[in-house]
Amino acid sequence: MTMKLPLISLPILLIFFYHCTTTIVALSPAESPSEAQAPSKAKPPSKAKAPSKALPQPPAQTPVDQPLVQAPSLEPLVPAPPPKAPAPAGPNVEKILEKAGVFSVFVRLLRSTQVINQIENQLNNSNALTILAPTNAAFSGLKSGTLNSLNAEQKVQLLQFHLLPSYISIANFQTVSNPVRTQASDTYDYPLNITTTGNSVNISTGLVNTSISGTVYSDNLLAIYRIDRVLLPLGIFAPRPKPPAPSPAPVKKPKSLESSSSSSSNDEDTPPVAALDNLSGGFSLAGNGMASIGVAVVAAVVLVLGQSEIFIW
Known about the structure:
FAS1 domain, about 40% helix, about 10% strand
């Protein structure tokens, strides 16, 4: 018995090893990890039966053999342009005037008439502007009830009369042409004349004379100057009659028509006395001619008679 035990255990070990090898090869990748890692319990073959051949297993499909399905791309075919940087805002006129501290009445009028919105839109669109800002003392110098007597449109025109639609530095006031154009209606009802004397800038509206007393703010886009009187335009406080419309230019006639019309006009314009004078002049000339002819005839007759008398005698 001691000699047969090793001989019997060796075939069993070989069969067990072969069975484990075929079982591991037959495992497919689709099996769960728990099933793949679980140890297979192989039954020991009986001693009487010969080991059975393993059945051929179908080839396992690998992930490479399966068709790949791509997810739809979320990126747009045409890339969007980069967002534009917001345009830089222009200078804040309201804050500048409030910081100066002496323009509260002017700021209140700009707000109530919404002219401040027009100013901000112009500056945000890079449109230059010059503001002649009256101080609180300038408004106090007006007659009582002056502002209250104006309607909404007149208040807007009054404020726009203080706005020049360009940037003008102190040095450039010497080159402006009068009347200076403002943002009011026109230069006839709203004339503004600016003259300079040295470093002094004088302003005249026909009703008010003042000068620039200081610079509140100045850059390449906006200039704000301090004035000590409110600019009163003629169109609101002393309206003038409109100038007469220019007469239309005369239509030129052809020369033939001009000569005929001139002759006819001369005949028509000649008074009756002058016409009679012309006629008498004509008759006098004719009479003088006939008289000279008559004298010549008489002289010839006398000469002939004289010769006949001589011949008779």
